[in-house]
Amino acid sequence: MSQSNPNKDKEVLVRVTNLKKHFPIRRGVFRKQVGAVQAVDGITFDIYKGETLGLVGESGCGKSTAGRTILQLLPPTDGKVHFGQKELTDLNKGDLRRQRRHMQMIFQDPYASLNPRMQVGSIVGEPLQIHGIGNAASRKERVQELLSVVGLNPYFVKRYPHEFSGGQRQRIGIARALATNPSFIVADEPISALDVSIQAQVVNLLDDLKSELGLTYLFIAHDLSMVRYISDRVAVMYLGRIVEMGERDEVYDHPLHPYTQALLSAIPIPDPDKEAARKRIILEGDVPSPANPPAGCRFNPRCSYATDICRQEDPEFRNLGTDIHSHMVACHHADKFL
After folding, report:
1. How close are the terminal C-alpha atoms of the chain, in Å?
2. Fewest CB atoms within 10 A around its CB: which of 38, 39, 117, 145?
3. Can you tell me whether residue 81 is helix, strand or coil?
């Protein structure tokens, strides 16, 4: 198996190195720290300019925390995040604030992420005002342009969030994220709170905007079929760690980690005969607590392939792909699935 990097010629926009985010557990009168929730525990990957990297996993595995920590909305416990030529974790508050215009976030809940007391024009225009972009007239024009870009009537600027449907509110959130003309957007489960009929519209909008504006996405979701539709590469996360990562079709068609195999077996197939014939992989037990993760491979308590080495040694995150397609996996027994 080749250990070379087939993506070495691509331009890296975001480089995440051994990123950790632990939340302290405090007890007693003096709030003494007695442990930590290891929400993100040493993830390393690159996001290439112009691509969509899908980040998938069960609820509570650390996906959203990873996205917020990459953008420094949460201060990392350890690790580095390079954005272009800048190391975000070393920036002071002023420099980080200036850097934020180039990297934005679309939040999960379109009902909670918009201020109900603000008009839509003020919500979308606020990032322009914060970063001192343009004057009042040009900002007003830019807000109307952004509403048109996301498929809303530009004359809705005087309306309030409660006057819009869920899908329209998410479009407002997307317009706000685009306001400062960023190059990188973290989309944190942007469709999970929407009706199924609206989800496809929002995903298609994001895909169109990527092509038109040259955006780069980290698309966080647990809807695996939607991630396959929009992503170029996919990373699978379990209990704070990335267990598999590679080209979208490579991961979906040839999963090498037992956890990825179980996730993919849960995707419904629209053919009744194929759906009835296929074998579902049912994982036993519950996800261990991130405050007390198991020794060795974190998936070993629920894995039917686990052996002694899985319970004792942390598996190396290694490339079992080719010179053309990298396929990274953290599993001692991944070779048997090749």
Report:
1. 11
2. 117
3. strand
Do the beta carbons of residue 16 and residue 46 sit within 8 Å? yes
Other CB atoms within 10 Å distance of the CB of residue 133 = 16
C-alpha span between 180 and 146 (Å, rounded): 10
Residue 49 is encoded by which pair of tokens? 């300019």
- Sequence-ordered list of residues with C-beta below 8 angstroms from that of 154, at least 6 positions apart, any chain: 143, 144, 145, 147, 148
User: Is the CB of residue 83 less than 8 Å from the CB of residue 91?
Assistant: no
CA dist 291 and 146 (Å) reads 43
Name the pTM for this structure: 0.91
Give yes or no for a contact between 66 and 59, defined as CB atoms under 8 angstroms apart: no
User: Would you state the pLDDT for residue 255?
Assistant: 94
pLDDT band at 7 (very low <50, low <70, confident <90, very high): low
- Tally of CA atoms within 13 A in the half-sphere of 109 that contains its CB: 4
Task: Report the C-alpha gap between 311 and 292 in whole angstroms.
Answer: 14
- In the structure, what pLDDT confidence band is assigned to residue 228 with cuts at 50, 70 and 90? very high
Apex CA 254: angle with CA 10 and CA 60, to 5°? 80
Phi/psi at 277 (5° precision): -85, -25
> Are 195 and 167 within 8 A, CB to CB?
yes
Which burial class, exposed, middle or buried, applies to 217 when counting CB atoms under 10 A from its CB (0-12, 13-18, 19+)?
Answer: buried
Alpha-helical regions (H) of the chain: 63-70, 93-99, 120-130, 136-149, 166-178, 196-213, 224-230, 248-253, 258-265, 272-277, 308-312
Contact 329, 261 (CB under 8 A): no
